[in-house]
Design goal:
Elements (H helix, E strand, L loop, with lengths): L1 H13 L3 H22 L8 H41 L2 H7 L4 H5 L1 H33 L4 H9 L4 H27 L5 H30 L3
């Protein structure tokens, strides 16, 4: 029963988010490259610095944090509304009557699915963001492909990728646990379910931003 629930949550919370993550990452990577190229429009600065700035922006901040905020809106509202609807329609009480541990059955698979699949989404976001920058730089003529590839390789630190994925795991836990709390504890009817979904998105987004600052200060600030 728990394995089936976990597999279902991987599909709902993970696979269903691939399309929106891919589209946003591709175009934001292109925008970051173009804006960086405009700000570094100086003959003294080598062109490959554009790729370096794009790489650092996407890996360190955009992919782990901004994508997590987007997932907080998509996944968080889904979790809160689903659990809230089950609560007000007394489906959770029915599970308790049948002897099923409802929090373990309904909440734990969501948390585990997000903590396992969200880093995969972030890796996809990093790749597509950098690819979008490559395409935009080539099409606009602001940076040649050889310069872009050179900038990507120059001074690359794999530790930054590991750091970003670690942040993503924390963000995934915050998003799913906070959203599940608001949905699981909702009381009332359809109006209260909608209010709980809104609170879940807002609270989880704020939690992600605060956690991002704390983790960055602790890990990179020293």
């Amino acid at each position: 029963m728990y394995r089936k629930s976990f597999a279902k949550e991987i599909d709902y919370l993970g696979y269903d988010s691939v399309a929106i993550v891919a589209i946003i990452s591709l175009f934001v990577g292109a925008v970051v490259t173009i804006q960086t190229a405009l700000n570094l429009d100086n003959p003294i600065i080598p062109a490959y610095y554009i790729a370096i700035a794009t790489r650092e922006s996407i890996i360190l901040e955009f992919s782990p944090t901004m994508i997590s905020l987007i997932l907080a809106g998509k996944v968080g509202s889904n979790i809160a509304s689903t659990l809230g609807t089950m609560r007000v329609s007394e489906q959770i009480e029915a599970l308790d009557v049948m002897g099923i541990n409802s929090p373990a059955y309904l909440i734990l698979p969501k948390i585990l699915a997000s903590m396992i699949f969200n880093p995969i989404l972030i890796l996809l976001s990093m790749f597509l963001g950098i690819l979008g920058g490559y395409i935009a730089g080539d099409l606009s003529g602001m940076i040649t492909p050889p310069d872009y590839v050179l900038g990507l390789q120059l001074g690359f630190r794999p530790y930054y990728v590991a750091y970003s994925l670690s942040k993503t795991v924390v963000f995934a836990f915050l998003i799913t646990s906070i959203s599940a709390y608001y949905g699981f504890t909702v009381k009332g009817g359809a109006v209260e379910v909608g209010a709980a979904s809104t609170k879940a998105v807002v609270t989880s987004s704020v939690a992600v931003i605060i956690a991002n600052y704390i983790i960055t200060q602790v890990v990179l600030g020293n």
